[in-house]
Amino acid sequence: MAKKTRITNNIRRLRFEAGEMTQAELARKVGVTRQTVIAIEQGRYSPSLEVAFQMAEAFGVGLEEVFQYPKAPAAKT
Length: 77
What we know:
Number of helices: 5
Shape: elongated
Order of helices and strands: EHHHHHE
Number of strands: 2
Radius of gyration: 13 Å
């Protein structure tokens, strides 16, 4: 079983806000398979930087609107 990534995303919400764009439509715009979009959306796969930027462009938003990476807890001193 694949380890879940720490990267979270808003792909599902953004697809809905983009006129209920399907995963297949997003995949075509970005140049990946529908299965890749599903895996990224479900947090089972981290996209390459290129794919991440292409997804943001497909939605017309900034990268941080699509993907988030939680900050590590501060080290105790």
